[in-house]
Design goal:
Layout lengths: L2 E7 L4 H12 L17 H9 L2 H8 L3 E6 L1 H4 L6 H21 L4 E3 L1 E2 L12 H9 L6 E3 L19 H10 L3 E3 L11 H18 L3 H4 L5 E3 L10 H10 L5 H4 L4 E4 L5 H10 L5 E2 L22 H6 L5 H15 L1 H9 L3
Parallel strand pairs: 1-2, 2-3, 4-5, 5-6, 6-7, 7-8, 8-9
Helix pairs in contact: 6-7, 14-15
Length: 341
C-alpha cells in the first residue's frame, strides 16, 4: 500500500470560498454575514471536485490512500479573531470528513485548528477533540505562526502550547506543523513562508526541551523539512555550541519529515541524511506546485517517481511508502486494519 500523508482539499467546490468571502466581509459589514450553518454543498459537487482532481491523480500515480485536510493557505488564521477561525475550521473540517465518508477506502481526514493571533493556544483543544473523536481525523495541522508571516506567536516549546501537546498525546494523534497564508509581502506564501516555517519549527525544537516533557508527542515537519536536511551539519554544530545533544538523539524519536520535495536530488538528499524511519511518503498533489517539469515530462509533485528512484532497498521503500505512516499515525493504522488492509 502507498499512503500519502499530505493532501489538502485545494479543489473544494466554489460555495466554500464564497462562504469564506462573506465571512471576511462581515468583519466590517455584519449585514453580509453568511449562514452560520455553512455553505450548501451537495455530495455530487464533492464527487466532481475529487474525481477529476485528487482521485484521478492518485489512480494515475498508484497512490492508495491520502490523509486529506483543509487547504492550508485557506486557514488564514490572521483574519478576524477566534470566533472567525472557529467557525471556519468547523466548516472546513466537516467538509473533509464528508470526503472521507464518500471515499472511505481512499481518503482519511485530517483537521485544521481554530487558531488566532494572540489567543491562548488552549482554545483549540475542543476542536481537536471534535475532529478526532467525532470526525475520525488522524492528524491535525498546527500553525506555528497564526499571525501570517509576522511571527508573533511564542515558540512551540513555550508552556502556552502545553495543553495542545497534552491533548494530542492523550488522543495519540500527531500534528503536522504547517503554516498558512503569508500576509507579509516579504515572504511569498508557498515559496518562502512555508519553507521558512519548516526550518524555524525545527530550530525551535532543537533549542528547547519539549520532548523531555512530552516523550510520546509526534510532530511531522512537511516539505522535506525545509532547510533541515540541506543544512544538517549547521544544526548539529548549533546543538554542539549550545551544549545540547545531537539532534538524532534529542529529536528524531519524535520528529518526522515528508517527501514533498519536487526534484530527484532533493529526495536523494533527504533520504541520505535522514534515517529511513523518519521519512513518510507525501506529495501534496494539486497543491503549491502543479505544473509539469519540462526536463522530465512529469508533474513536479509526482513524488513517487523520485522516492522509487532513490536507491532504497525494498524494505526501506515499504517503510517510507506505508509502514512509517501506520506507525506515526496510529489512528490511520486502526482505520486501515478495520478495512482489512
Amino acid at each position: 500500500m502507498i499512503i500519502d500523508i499530505h493532501g489538502h482539499y485545494t479543489t473544494a467546490p466554489s460555495p466554500l470560498g464564497q462562504w469564506r468571502d462573506a465571512q471576511v466581509a462581515a468583519l466590517t459589514d455584519p449585514l453580509r454575514a453568511p449562514d452560520p450553518a455553512g455553505p450548501v454543498i451537495g455530495d455530487d459537487e464533492i464527487r466532481a471536485s475529487i474525481e477529476t482532481n485528487q482521485l484521478r491523480l492518485m489512480d494515475e500515480r498508484g497512490i492508495d490512500v491520502t490523509v486529506f485536510s483543509p487547504r492550508a493557505s485557506f486557514m488564514a488564521h490572521h483574519i478576524g479573531g477566534f470566533a472567525t477561525s472557529a467557525a471556519w475550521a468547523r466548516i472546513c473540517n466537516d467538509l473533509c470528513h464528508r470526503v472521507s465518508e464518500l471515499y472511505p477506502d481512499r481518503f482519511v481526514p485530517g483537521a485544521m485548528l481554530p487558531q488566532s493571533p494572540g489567543v491562548d493556544p488552549a482554545t483549540v483543544v475542543p476542536e481537536i477533540e471534535r475532529a478526532v473523536l467525532e470526525l475520525g481525523a488522524v492528524t491535525v495541522n498546527l500553525n506555528p505562526d497564526p499571525s501570517g508571516g509576522h511571527w508573533t506567536a511564542p515558540p512551540l516549546t513555550d508552556r502556552s502550547w502545553y495543553p495542545v501537546w497534552e491533548k494530542l498525546v492523550e488522543l495519540d494523534v500527531p500534528a503536522m506543523v504547517h503554516v498558512s497564508t503569508s500576509c507579509n509581502p516579504a515572504f511569498h506564501t508557498t515559496g518562502a513562508h512555508y519553507l521558512n516555517a519548516d526550518t524555524t519549527a525545527f530550530v525551535q525544537l532543537l533549542t528547547g526541551d519539549l520532548f523531555a516533557y512530552f516523550p510520546e508527542l509526534r510532530l511531522v515537519i512537511p516539505h522535506g523539512g525545509g532547510a533541515v536536511p540541506y543544512h544538517w551539519g549547521r544544526f548539529r554544530g548549533l546543538a554542539q555550541a549550545l551544549g545540547r545533544p545531537e539532534p538524532e538523539e534529542s529529536l528524531l524519536r519524535n520528529v518526522f519529515f515528508d517527501t514533498c520535495v519536487y526534484h530527484q536530488p532533493g529526495i536523494d538528499l533527504l533520504l541520505e541524511v535522514m534515517p529511513v524511519e523518519n521519512v513518510l511518503f507525501a506529495s501534496e498533489m494539486v497543491g503549491a506546485v502543479r505544473g509539469v517539469d519540462p526536463r522530465t515530462g512529469h508533474h513536479f509533485d509526482d513524488t513517487r517517481r523520485y522516492v522509487e528512484k532513490a536507491g532504497l532497498t525494498p524494505e526501506d521503500l515499504a517503510a517510507v511508502e506505508e509502514r512509517n505512516a501506520r506507525r506515526v499515525y496510529p489512528r490511520l493504522d486502526t482505520r486501515l486494519a478495520a478495512q482489512g488492509r
